[in-house]
methionine--tRNA ligase (Vigna unguiculata), 610 residues
Amino acid sequence: MAVRINCSIQNTLSLLNPPLSSLRFRASPLKLNPQFHFGQNPSRGALFCTYATTDITPSNAEPFVLTTPLYYVNAPPHMGSAYTTIAADAIARFQRLLGKKVIFITGTDEHGEKIATAAMAQGSTPPDHCNLISQSYKALWKDLDISYDKFIRTTDSKHEAIVKEFYSRVLDSGDIYRADYDGLYCVNCEEYKDEKELLDNNCCPVHLKPCVSRKEDNYFFALSKYQKALEETLNKNPNFVQPSFRLNEVQSWIKSGLRDFSISRASVDWGIPVPDDKSQTIYVWFDALLGYISALSDDQEQPDLLKSVSSGWPASLHLIGKDILRFHAVYWPAMLMSAGLSLPKMVFGHGFLTKDGMKMGKSLGNTLEPNDLVDKFGTDAVRYFFLREVEFGSDGDYSEERFINIVNAHLANTVGNLLNRTLGLLKKNCQSILVVDSATAAEGNSFKDNVENLVDKARIHYENLSLSSACEAVLEIGNVGNSYMDQRAPWSLFKQGDTAAEAAAKDLVIILETVRIIAIALFPVTPSLSWRIYEQLGYSRDQFDAATWKDTKWGGLKGGQVMAQPKPVFARIENQTEVEDKKSKGVAVGKTVKSKGKLKLKQAQEVAGA
């Protein structure tokens, strides 16, 4: 069942962070047993503003700090990583449209045994391997139009300094102690496993590989001490973890009893050394989570934990996959409490992606490579499909057939064709010049009210992180625009001349204003397509870049404004069967480019700035 969040992010994010004095604890020394055999080890109402508002966001407002996970560099980026980042980018772009100061953080997690092993398998060194994979993430983010503000690498020197300072604060709180650990360890998960959760032959249920027996002398974090504080935090702030069914998971984990966890490794060399103990390195998760704070530090200054915190912490929103929910909703808050720092305002755990109804994997030969998708279909198509078709928070499925059908129907037909045929009529009958302001053209016309109501719906859905519903509302604007065009039939009115032709010219202004509003409202999802639309409407790049959500208000187009020559703004995707069928009938086929599957992509005319 689709899950929707019913509270706006503005209302939700103001509820957290009780006074630190109620969260900070001073621990008495713990009595230790010679060894620990743990039974469990965790794995890694809408705020609505009318357009009467003159200033969307006060200049002294807190920044909106948004994070993706720091992606593990054992392998190049996959579609799951791309999905999280595309969603984060859409949210960041929407918040910027509202006038917010946004700090969008992403990056790479580069320490740990698995990284060293992956580097060795490639005949490389860990630093060289990390440089290569980290760069591949940056390249993909560029191809996907990801507008991040901070890219942190856990091998950055400023990050290491802040991790060590944080570690010392937790140590000073009495929450780090030394003890032996004897258990079964999954190298791929980089964590100890409880025997009860393993499959036959002690295989990890995630990676399906046998865990190895290990006994280590490690440093531990006293997570159990924060059980009551975490319970109280979730009870007082139920929106801290979203969607709500993820909150239920977290509460269940905590209720079952929290156990202290190892935060160092004696057998892993590729990591940040524990302060005052070079024989141990800090556990990758204790290390990587601090990237959300170290990213806030200025590259030109001496790294300082509190100075970084003052630059934007706490985060407004952590976006993560559900598989790392426990680290972000249990471990991380407890660590922050121990260090006397504020908690993030919301942790949102989205679902997994499948392909043709099946879990993806190299062994099944059905992996979904984001670079291949972008090469075949383009950035806008990839962004739109996953944000429109996957209910944010739930699992979602990709199939090539549905991808083509959705993208063609929504972007090529509903939006692109509406713009193209309207501009064609304007060129033929009005020399591509608007005869009147859009505000005047729509006077007394209820169509304008319908569009504005749908814009309001889209805004509320964006605020509530209901990205699929936001796309739906914007697409509905396109649907009503097409219906208006068909009902009014301006091509017929132009033939009648006189007042009918005057009415037709006004109708074209109304439809083009509708498409202009679509471009702004869909910008968080398809930024390049939105620019191509604006360019067709005669705007400069500077005018487009200056647009805000207030520009979704009716009345942007002005009389006398000259439209560009009609060109397709989005290429319709044709499958191989369609191409061959057209050829057999002697129908002209647009220039196509072969792709890896049975698809060919019809090329639109070159559009400047695309």
In short: The chain has a mean pLDDT of 85.
